[in-house]
Amino acid sequence: MKAVSFLSDKWAWLRSAAPDAFVLRASVGRFGEDDLPARPDRHLIRTAITELRQAVGPLGEPVAARVTRWDRGLPQYAVGHHDRVRDIREAAAKLPGLGLCGAAYEGVGVAACVATGRTAARQALAEAEAA
């Protein structure tokens, strides 16, 4: 399990549409699991439910489930990723005007990408003001 979002906690309209249920999104797949997109939907759903129960406890059975495959849609970080990113950032710091941001660095989620974008923008502004 890479990520789980309880969407009905994020968006009230989902909670009000089904007050006795919840909606969640689970993202499965780990680095090196290249065969995962070829597995049947039922296998992916069962794997997600099993791992969710291990993480949060009893959840009941899903009323409905849908699998959406994003084969190669997001980076898969290998062991040592954080060290490589540190080294890249140290090298980039020596090149004025170069900012690094996006899913390749600190995380693939929207919040992580926005955070790296803001940091790169602040860096660019600071460099422009100093020039």
Automatic annotation (TrEMBL):
Q: Which SUPFAM superfamilies match?
A: FAD-linked reductases, C-terminal domain
User: Which protein, by its recorded name, is this?
Assistant: Amine oxidase domain-containing protein
Q: Which organism is it from?
A: Streptomyces erythrochromogenes
